[in-house]
Write a structure and sequence with these properties.
mainly beta
Length: about 180
């Protein structure tokens, strides 16, 4: 009888998490992005926007391309930076209204004159790793909350950057 007492709640719990979201073929997102740049050095903040496109190959794996642009002031100078990255996305689609995910992306960062004190604009390597959660609004749209670590390399030194994104995700097609 004690086993039956524990089996029924376990079945209910697993059936709740089994109501997974349908996997969309594509997810297109856009939103506001905040960059806390060069945590170990000059430490400045930039505001901007980001957009991404994710192609889901199955319910838990896909590929994402992400483009971000930032603008702000560093040491009194107006600076800007743009990133383009691509990499795998790992999703956990076991809940009805939330979809947590993790990703690792490689690409490039372009920075303007004055960014970290560089004397001319430059394009350098960038690596982004992090994750987030999509909170479903309806079958076609979600709110995205994302936090990432971004490593860049200017002036022969690594920069450790943090970025946060808030935006909307639109889902298309079905897998």
């Amino acid at each position: 009888m004690k086993q039956l007492f524990w089996i029924i709640p376990a079945i209910l719990l697993f059936s709740f998490t089994a109501r997974a979201q349908e996997t969309p073929a594509w997810e297109i997102s856009g939103g506001y992005t905040y960059l806390k740049a060069d945590l170990g050095g000059s430490n400045f903040s930039l505001n901007g926007a980001s957009a991404s496109a994710t192609q889901n190959l199955n319910s838990w794996f896909g590929g994402r391309v992400e483009v971000s642009g930032y603008h702000g002031k560093e040491s009194g100078a107006t600076v800007s930076a743009q990133t383009v990255t691509y990499g795998p996305v790992f999703s956990y689609r076991r809940f009805k209204t939330i979809n947590p995910y993790a990703h690792v992306q490689l690409g490039a960062i372009h920075a303007s004159t004055g960014y970290l004190g560089i004397s001319q604009s430059a394009i350098k390597f960038a690596m982004v790793g992090g994750g987030g959660v999509d909170v479903q609004i309806n079958k076609m749209a979600s709110v995205r909350l994302q936090a990432d670590y971004m490593m860049s390399r200017f002036l022969g030194l690594n920069q450790n950057n943090l970025q946060g994104t808030v935006g909307l995700v639109f889902r298309f097609g079905k897998k």
